[in-house]
Amino acid sequence: KNEVEQSPQNLTAQEGEFITINCSYSVGISALHWLQQHPGGGIVSLFMLSSGKKKHGRLIATINIQEKHSSLHITASHPRDSAVYICAVSGFVSNTGNQFYFGTGTSLTVIP
Amino acid sequence: EAGVAQSPRYKIIEKRQSVAFWCNPISGHATLYWYQQILGQGPKLLIQFQNNGVVDDSQLPKDRFSAERLKGVDSTLKIQPAKLEDSAVYLCASSSEPYEQYFGPGTRLTVT
Lengths: 112, 112
Fold this sequence. Notes:
The structure holds two protein chains of two kinds.
Chain A: E1 4-7, E2 10-14, E3 19-25, E4 31-37, E5 43-49, E6 52-56, E7 59-64, E8 69-74, E9 83-93, E10 97-102, E11 106-111
Chain B: E1 5-7, E2 10-13, E3 19-24, E4 31-37, E5 44-50, E6 53-56, E7 65-68, E8 75-79, E9 88-95, E10 102-103, E11 107-111
Parallel strand pairs in B: 2-11
Antiparallel strand pairs in B: 1-3, 3-8, 4-5, 4-9, 5-6, 7-8, 9-10, 9-11
């Protein structure tokens, strides 16, 4: 069983739609990260959060620590939002320091 | 601030050949990570360095993979000999603070 589960795995939306990607985790964490990966590209960090909600432009990330769940929302989606969105959690492991666990990603395609 | 640099960006080799990847982390970042990301999966940690010492290499296939970080700055990851299943994106990341990572653009390896 993966420590981090994302849903859906694939998502196709029409331009302008409101999009939600979900992430559930099973380990104790210090922070949760939402990452964006464009085809053939590296990974860009969108958010790092440990509680509550963060907003950056059309992107909103929320986390519920008690339920071990986070959501990434994209408002007024645009074709340039097409990418893989990866949820990752970080937690302290005593013998190796910081440990990251990654979800398998959600592939988003926004159609004009 | 310059980001994490990786080279080459793409590499195609035949099985049983050798290949090496290079990573230059963000200046001052003590921690460096190498990840393997197979298509459709999240990144998998191969090795983590703290300065020039290895913190975690438990998932590094040591019969064919090796990595070093001489002088605690640049790092190289080598595969010798390569297998078909090594086809993946190899990501380098660095950090100076717990729970944060900055990713490079990745090297896409294709083994034929």
